[in-house]
Inverse folding.
């Protein structure tokens, strides 16, 4: 198992990034919350990881802190929840807020995330309660949230691409982005606002 990687960011296109680790390029996928913490392309980071091995691919996922990785690992153990859905959930809601949602049994909020229907939301609440009840929120180890903006020549297109990659249908992604878009928004702010609008109460 690959626990973390330390290297230079070579490319960023939400939700994917390429990390140069001593001349080897590692392709990772990450939630939007992790993307918000990434520095600029060319800078060095250390990022926590989780490796999923399938017959047709080895998939590597990156996390800014241990809390997010913990929730991701718990999510992919739930029946019917794959890695892509887990990443989508963690893009629309932070790890701490997700725990509160599970404890409160707030299925309605979960169903506002793309790909999460009523039955899946109810299953998440039932199965995740026991898995998260002893979780107090681990301190970050090596992720280092930097809180630097994602740069893009066209923030709207960057946001649309990110939402579609996370599972939103193009029409829904366009509706969400244009509903919150403003002239002074960078791509990070736009993606964050669109995701919050999709899951707000």
């Amino acid at each position: 198992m690959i626990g973390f990687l330390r290297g230079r960011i070579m490319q960023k296109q939400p939700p994917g990034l390429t990390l140069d680790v001593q001349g080897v390029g590692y392709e990772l996928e990450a939630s939007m919350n992790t993307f918000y913490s990434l520095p600029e392309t060319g800078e060095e980071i250390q990022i926590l990881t989780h490796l999923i091995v399938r017959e047709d691919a080895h998939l590597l996922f990156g996390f800014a802190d241990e809390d997010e990785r913990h929730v991701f690992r718990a999510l992919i153990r739930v029946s019917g929840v794959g890695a892509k859905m887990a990443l989508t959930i963690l893009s629309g809601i932070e790890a701490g807020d997700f725990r509160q949602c599970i404890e409160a049994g707030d299925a309605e909020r979960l169903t506002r995330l793309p790909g999460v229907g009523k039955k899946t939301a109810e299953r998440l609440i039932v199965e995740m309660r026991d898995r998260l009840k002893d979780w107090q929120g681990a301190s970050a180890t090596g992720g280092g949230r930097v809180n630097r903006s994602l740069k893009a020549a066209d923030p709207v297109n960057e946001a649309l691409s990110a939402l579609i990659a996370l599972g939103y249908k193009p029409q829904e992604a366009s509706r969400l982005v244009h509903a919150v878009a403003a002239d002074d928004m960078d791509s990070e702010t736009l993606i964050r606002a669109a995701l919050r609008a999709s899951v707000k109460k």
